[in-house]
Fold this protein.
Amino acid sequence: GVAEGLRRGGVLIDMSTISPIVTRELANRLAARGIAMLDAPVSGGERGAREGTLSIMVGGDEAVFRACRPIFEALGRQIVYMGPSGAGQLTKACNQIVVGVTIQAVSEALTLAERAGVDPARVREALLGGFAQSRILEVHGARILQGDFQPGFKVRLHHKDLGIALATGRSLGVPLPATALVNELLAALEARGRGDWDHSALATLARELAGGPPGGPTG
């Protein structure tokens, strides 16, 4: 519908997260009508959107990207041109792989500490000073310790995004075994009615599998 309303010479900027393959198909269809398309998915969560500090990954014609850069600068802090159509979506898929697998790693580490009788808050503090330091350990590690799973980014949305990553991997012959595991764990959370919890709720499933209580959202 949006495409039908555009005139020749127009630009469609898609900032949602969809398949890189579908993105290329849409871009080709629009190009046949003289309309440019940029795929510009984002990372940074709800806070980044509110504060205009998103990371924006852009695919499409580079000249069109340069012309549209002021739009992106109003929305984000880190704006990177990734390459031809679909490159932005492929980058977002890579981002979601790293985020999902890292949340699971943090969840398992803190659950192991808890079950071993070692203060998981102190474990997190120690890890933040070493090679395991990450933004996810910092932010989501704190969420997990507080039992605060009010969504910044919902489980069901991350599940959808990893489905895109896995489908892309299959189309390219690239196995993604760790991604597939986290994808199934997110599906299990949805089956438990936690699809609208924050994706850091992977920790609740890790605790359940270890025989502990899952915890729940606060506030």
Observations:
- The chain has a mean pLDDT of 94.
- The CA atoms of residues 19 and 164 lie 6 Å apart.
- The first strand starts at residue 11 and ends at 14.
- The radius of gyration is 19 Å.
